[in-house]
Amino acid sequence: MFRANCSTSWSVKLLALALAVTLAGCGFRLRGTYDVSPALQQVAVISASPYGDMAQILKNRLRASDVVVAEDGATDVAEIQLLDEVLEERTLSLFETGQVAEYELLYRLKVRIRSAGGDPLEQEVRVQRQYLDDPDKALAKGREKGLLLTEMREAAADRILRLMATYKG
Prior knowledge:
With 169 residues, the protein is an alpha/beta fold. It has helices at residues 2-25, 53-64, 138-166, and strands at residues 42-47, 68-69, 78-94, 100-114, 121-132. It folds into two domains: 1-30; 32-166, Double Stranded RNA Binding Domain (2-Layer Sandwich), CATH 3.30.160.150. Strand 1 (42-47), helix 2 (53-64) and strand 2 (68-69) form a beta-alpha-beta unit.
């Protein structure tokens, strides 16, 4: 009986190893991790609000992708400049009473990526979501809107990392 369990254990280990090798060979990566350009392995994040939500989310995403985030004022490092951050709301539908029932939220962020001595890449990142509003649950909807904005900023940070992965500067 011990031999059967031992052989089953080895076959499971062998199957797990084969699966890991196959996934690594095909380029599989965990969600949220990116291989950024070698020219952008050390970056400084420059923002009008360096301790704001977007700057902090981007720095966390960079660190998760093994990018060194340089201190402010560092020289001879790549830069990511967060230039303009805008959240727009557009009415999509109304209740019979005339109150807004549904919004479309559009988050726009202009970003400039430049390696040390390289050409800059300027891009506008856009993230769009729909938001249902219920005037009877104003407090809960306010919290939901805040969470939705955080999610939109995280999606924007992921798009910036994808831009960094394709940067040739």
